[in-house]
Design brief:
The chain has 411 residues and is α+β, with helices and mostly antiparallel strands. The chain has two domains: 39 residues, no CATH class; 310 residues, Kelch-type beta propeller (Neuraminidase, 6 Propeller). The protein is 16% helix and 36% strand. The chain has ten helices and 24 strands. Strand 4 and strand 5 form a beta hairpin.
Length: 411
């Protein structure tokens, strides 16, 4: 009976009109699908599976997603992602191809996703098991950096690193599989094209720990903020370094015409702008230059790397910013509304994203994110909107980055 059922199913499939199309016509039809729909069609039939191969899927536009970083490594073997074009939340499973259950995504580039994964610790002997709970290794299990393509279901471990890099390093991913890991004193770089299979170490000649470093792919350079102020007052300055000169190439980026552009923002953070040739600086807009001045909203400044000029790219609407400071919550509970903005309210706003898209999360905003998208012209202040239905992790604080899922690169 099973054989006859298979024969009937095969006969029905053979009669489907799409199976009668010439190969060129079939490819023309399938090229009109989105990448997500094309991947979903692969298991439908042998014809689709043989047509929708990796090289064919590489011709389709990448799937632009916001990938959330789970606050705990053991996130159930999957990650949550948001598709801003379709306004849908997706689940990316990893258990089918990644044997490590505990992992945390940290960076992405051109269809590739980079993860810190917990490797299995060495077996404990009877003499050492009693002290294992208090040892540093037990508190910080060994980790390795892996690169994967979650849509293709493939992964590869990068050369091993020390555990301190996993705990304190910031991972940046660039074109061609280039990976950087930055800490306060040094940077590591890895490039598959070099063929050495080793990490190269570069000392950082910076005045302080780099804050929110980013890799501007279009300019092939790394940018970071450094605090050059005093213990009583922060003073931020922008530094950059070409990828080709990671050793000794760091230098301040400053112009006399910029004035006090770094003084008007509280706790600024950098993100990559659209196209990799713009740098976004986001922070709380100070109401005055006083040390404890409250913030009135969140301001997004944009540096054009071609003209080296700053402009205002966006400003969070006041009613949206009040939700992050707790004023909306106070109004809903019938409490008295403060006459002035809550001092330090912007400290509760978590900023993440990249490539011209910025998301904002906070403890007082549960189950949703504020979203800003850079416009092409640069004169409208961008588009602001709320993203609802965010998968909850309990505390309501979210972090993440932009991931372009596709088949253009493989580990």
């Amino acid at each position: 009976m099973a054989g006859s059922d298979d024969d009937e199913a095969a006969a029905a499939a053979a009669l489907a009109p799409i199976h009668c199309l010439p190969p060129d016509a079939l490819r023309n039809v399938l090229l009109r699908l989105t990448l997500r729909d094309a991947v979903a069609c692969r298991p439908v039939s042998r014809l689709f599976r043989e047509t929708l191969t990796g090289p064919f899927l590489a011709l389709l536009p990448a799937l632009r997603l916001l990938l959330l970083r789970h606050p705990r490594p053991d996130g159930g073997g999957c990650l949550h992602a948001f598709d801003p074009d379709r306004r849908r939340w997706l689940r990316l499973p990893f258990t089918a191809f990644l044997p490590h259950q505990a992992f945390s995504p940290v960076a992405s580039s051109a269809s590739l996703l980079y993860l810190w994964i917990e490797t299995a610790p060495a077996p404990l002997t009877s003499s050492s098991s009693s002290s294992s709970s208090s040892s540093p290794a037990a508190a910080h299990p060994p980790k390795a950096l892996a690169v994967c393509n979650p849509l293709a279901g493939t992964y590869r471990l990068l050369p091993p690193l020390g555990s301190a890099w996993a705990r304190h390093g910031t991972v940046l991913a660039g074109p061609g599989g280039v990976v950087l890991v930055l800490t306060e004193l040094a940077a590591l770089s890895y490039s598959p094209s070099e063929g050495s299979g080793k990490w190269m170490k570069h000392p950082l000649s910076l005045p302080s720990k780099p804050r929110s470093p980013i890799l501007a792919a279009g300019a092939r350079a790394v940018f970071a903020l450094c605090d050059v102020g005093t213990p009583w007052r922060s003073q931020w300055k922008l530094f950059s370094c070409p990828l080709a000169r990671l050793t000794g190439g760091w230098a301040p980026v400053e112009r006399a015409s910029w004035g006090d552009v770094f003084e008007i923002l509280k706790r600024p953070r950098l993100l990559a702008g659209a196209g990799g040739r713009r740098v976004l600086m986001i922070g709380g807009l100070r109401s005055s230059f006083a040390l404890d001045a409250p913030c009135s909203t969140v301001l997004i400044l944009r540096l054009d790397l071609a003209t080296m000029e700053w402009d205002e790219a966006g400003r969070m609407p006041p009613n949206m910013y009040r939700c992050f400071t707790g004023l909306c919550e106070a109004a809903a509970q019938g409490s008295a509304m403060p006459a002035a903005p809550v001092a330090g309210g912007n400290n509760k706003v978590k900023v993440f994203g990249g490539d011209g898209k910025v998301w904002f999360g906070g403890k007082r905003v549960r189950g949703k994110l504020a979203m800003w998208e850079e416009d092409d012209v640069g004169s409208s202040g961008g588009k602001w909107d709320w993203v609802d239905g965010v998968p909850g992790y309990g505390d309501g604080v979210y972090r993440g980055f932009v991931f372009d899922g596709g088949f253009t690169a493989m580990p």
